[in-house]
């Protein structure tokens, strides 16, 4: 079986080539030191899961001190992080795997306890609809400009550390998404109000990051963007807002778009878009202008084939936690050898320390717990 789509290399617009169509999905490890510096455990975790995959997108790395989302989070908000990040990039790049750092700001989805007593910040002073959420402080205009600058600074640090690219984490309810969402963004200045205005932060962010890396890198450097297609909040992002977002992002010099889905076959909540999976609508809307990364419960080669009908690259997350050699087993038709279960005793062998183990518990399908 040599014709499977996932075996073929893929070249981004910027010129970087992935050796196959698989990408390791960004997964928070909670393994970093208190100040965001990488640990030996974390390097071991990535070393184990790189090599076979086309690219690794790292766990979310925090770009601003006031954006830290949780303890053990990777940091990229200070030059002191460059040395450790450089070791991380090298350990991922063994065997030609590309290293992409995910850039993140938590916005209202964090806690004063994580921010050493500071109140979380957000586009507006509106609490998230989560049981443990805290009332954020609405950002001042200069602070918004500063955060865009922080993302830019973080991208430059990633390039200096030897990463092949960065992914802007515009998904999963964090700050970038909060600017686009009518639930979290109630501003009436130029950063909020109409949908066009709620897009302004993303617009300026993407332009600022792509221009900065263009300026400082001579080698091809990947800039990707991750988004969540819908929100449950009312008001909230609806699928037609996402089609608008895609339309705007297709006009930017981005190397890829990466949708965040629980299942690659997931259907929209919106009654107007129920005829086919979200992924297919997105792929049709993009129409080849920018490569799309699919994700969500891809557990077999057959799943990957199906997801790749409506995307150029497929991201896999949890299966790489339970089986770091999942890619080779799929590529070499040895799927019967894939490990889908992790026992407490195997945690050390799989480099799954307390943080990631705890985080996994809420996110693994029942049979993987
Ligand atoms: C332990 C864990 C941590 C995660 N951390 C992140 C993250 O830091 N950034 C992000 O964009 N998504 C994160 N996700 C979501 C994954 O990238 C992915 O979209 C999700 O797990 C679905 O893919 P899968 O079914 O292949 O695991 C995380 C998921 C898990 C299980």
Automatic annotation (TrEMBL):
Q: Which GO terms describe its molecular function?
A: FMN binding; oxidoreductase activity
In terms of SUPFAM superfamilies, this protein maps to: FMN-linked oxidoreductases
Domain NADH:flavin oxidoreductase/NADH oxidase N-terminal residue range list: 8-335
Tell me the keywords, alphabetical order.
Answer: Flavoprotein, Oxidoreductase
Q: Name one Pfam family in it.
A: Oxidored_FMN
Annotated protein name in UniProt: NADH-dependent flavin oxidoreductase
Question: Which organism does this sequence originate in?
Answer: Alkalibacterium kapii
């Amino acid at each position: 079986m040599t014709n499977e789509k996932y075996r073929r290399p893929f070249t981004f617009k910027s010129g970087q080539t992935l050796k196959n169509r698989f990408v390791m999905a960004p997964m928070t490890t909670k393994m970093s030191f208190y100040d965001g510096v990488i640990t030996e455990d974390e390097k071991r975790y990535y070393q184990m899961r790189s090599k076979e995959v086309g690219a690794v997108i790292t766990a979310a790395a925090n770009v601003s001190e006031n954006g830290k989302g949780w303890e053990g989070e990777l940091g990229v908000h200070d030059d002191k992080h460059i040395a450790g990040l450089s070791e991380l990039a090298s350990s991922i790049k063994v065997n030609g795997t590309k290293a992409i750092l995910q850039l993140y700001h938590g916005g209202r989805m964090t806690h004063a306890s994580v921010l050493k007593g500071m109140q979380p910040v957000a586009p507006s002073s509106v609490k998230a609809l989560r049981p443990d959420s805290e009332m954020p402080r609405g950002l001042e205009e200069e602070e918004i400009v500063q955060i865009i600058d922080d993302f830019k600074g973080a991208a430059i640090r990633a390039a200096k550390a030897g990463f092949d690219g960065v992914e802007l984490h515009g998904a999963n309810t964090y700050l970038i998404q909060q600017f686009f969402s009518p639930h979290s963004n109630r501003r009436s200045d130029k950063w909020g109000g109409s949908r066009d205005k709620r897009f302004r932060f993303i617009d300026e962010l993407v332009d600022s990051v792509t221009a900065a890396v263009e300026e400082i890198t001579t080698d091809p450097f990947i800039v990707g963007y991750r988004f969540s297609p819908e929100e449950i909040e009312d008001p909230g992002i609806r699928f037609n807002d996402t089609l608008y977002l895609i339309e705007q992002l297709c006009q930017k010099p981005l190397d890829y778009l990466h949708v965040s889905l629980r299942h690659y076959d997931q259907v929209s909540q919106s009654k107007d878009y129920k005829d086919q999976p979200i992924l297919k609508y997105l792929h049709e809307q993009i129409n080849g202008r920018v490569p799309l990364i699919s994700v969500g419960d891809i557990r077999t080669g057959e799943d990957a084939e199906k997801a790749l009908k409506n995307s150029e690259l497929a991201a896999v997350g949890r299966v790489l936690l339970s089986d770091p050699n999942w890619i080779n087993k799929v590529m070499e038709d040895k799927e019967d050898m894939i490990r889908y279960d992790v026992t407490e005793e195997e945690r050390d062998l799989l480099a799954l320390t307390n943080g990631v183990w705890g985080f996994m518990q809420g996110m693994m399908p029942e049979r993987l717990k």
